[in-house]
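Risk register update: the risk that structure generation would not scale has been downgraded. Supporting records follow, first protein first.
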Amino acid sequence: MKINEEVAGLLEKVREKGPLVHHLTNYVTVNDCANITLAIGASPVMADDINEVKDMVSLASALVINIGTLNSRTVEAMLEAGKKANELGIPVVLDPVGAGATPYRTEVAKRILENIKLSVVRGNISEIKVLYGIDTITKGVDAAEIIAADSDKLAEEKEFAKAVAKKLNTVIAITGAVDIITDGEKLYTIENGHKIMSKVTGTGCMCTSLIGSYLGAGEDYLLAALSGVVSMGIAGEKANEKVEAEDLGTGSLKVYILDEIYKLNEETLLSRGKIYE
């Protein structure tokens, strides 16, 4: 329960500080990412032109880089923004959306790893394996592998996550049916969320924006990653409960996720957060 209290404390800091979170994200989910950043209590800016990214990131408390919809113009902007953030000590979170789906996408993800010191990397198991250097299959931007809570492979995936964190010298957040968050030494699993969340485009991107929001309010990158993931999981669960009770669908689910992030509080984090060491 102590870790749940720490998450609640960081949420309070987000709402007190209202950190500016600079996003270089994809155009499929940019509006969702902006809205969930506002809902948690932070402030989003979505500037991606190379002529202003260094100035904009200089004003921010955290930088989110999301490679969901790649083009050569924004790739260079991502690299410039990331380098400036490093120079100023501003934390950077990477969402390597679809890494492994095409050679270009994999190459861009690795260029970012090579040129930017990352505070957190959040992705699904397939994307993280690609970053580590393991050949794997992806389905567009979706994971081709699923690790369940009762899977014999869960212990193996935990050790893999630690190895990636050590190799890349960053916090790794692998999201799925069971979420794994580690800095290479300490490791947590989270069992919040609902499978219906995969039926809404952008829930992963929104989770990364939540991590960025928490990064902007504190100095513990592991806690920030954990907080973002558990917040999104709880919101997804509660949203699904409303959808089922009202016999609605995935359009309502997305709206309810935003509502639940906006209403998220200490009591909910303490009572519903399924975080395990």
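Supporting record for the second protein:
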Amino acid sequence: MGHGGGGALSAELTRHLFLPAYGGEALEGLTDSAAVTLGGARLAFSTDSYVVRPLFFPGGSIGDLAVNGTVNDLAMSGAVPAYLSCAFILEEGTELSTVGRVAQALGAAARAADVTVVTGDTKVVDSGHGDGVYVNTAGIGLIPEGVDIRPRRARPGDAVIVSGPIGQHGIAILSVREGLTFGTELVSDTAPLAGLVRAMLAVTPDIHVLRDPTRGGLAAALNEIATASGTGVALDEAAVPVPDAVATACALLGLDPMYMANEGRLVAFVARTHAEMVLEAMRAHPLGHEATVIGVCVAEHPGMVVARTGLGGTRIVDPPLGEQLPRIC
């Protein structure tokens, strides 16, 4: 299960098994979506599979995630998402009404994200060999001219910005899965981020890095960027926005919000000269109105993420080994 968690084990599996098997220059960047050229057009292309349990949770469902997750992967390359494919893998005995609810949620999410599902597939596996519904989506979108967003472009001096409070999706899944209550209903943050990215690019096309911190949370995303770019990241832990309910739940369960999954947040590395304008544009957008600067990219401690704590000390934010909570997307 740890190999599917988006942490060190996932990276090991990718680098030492899949990359040698597949080869190809386009894979080397290990970005959320590949930037490829076809007929003179620069395209972003991404695929993802969704196995979340339960299928429906506060604030969303596997149908929403299947659209938003792929749309967001495309948006992290600066692309304007356009088309999706969708494949359903169904377990024998799953109620058609359940499949219908997932399909309706997926269609509504696609319309909200302004993308079109244009092709698909359906498979059924024997009872006991699945878990109701699994969904795979792939997406393509156009990358505007002059946009070059990838982890290796992080530079010392870049402001590190997060678009809003972290940890809501992971804790929402945990609460419904385990039947836990924390004094208030926790709702997933699942949302399509392409519109927010367009607002940011309208300020400057020279955004260095974008990443949506899904599996492995903010810690995994920042460590991946630091490793890819050969830079360090210095965080102000007190500046990282953590909702009270998420902080309470993590404290009770011995979890760290930095490692909790998000499905409607992004982290951006932006040159200092553009940071204030980009932050202002983010805060003017509904999905970025709580955006804040949480740190800076530095030349020191390359490949490492270090956080300044509230007590004035520092701690290393290690990449997660596996996943605190499996099957959250």
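The two ends are 13 Å apart (CA to CA). On this basis the risk owner (M.S.) recommends closing the item.
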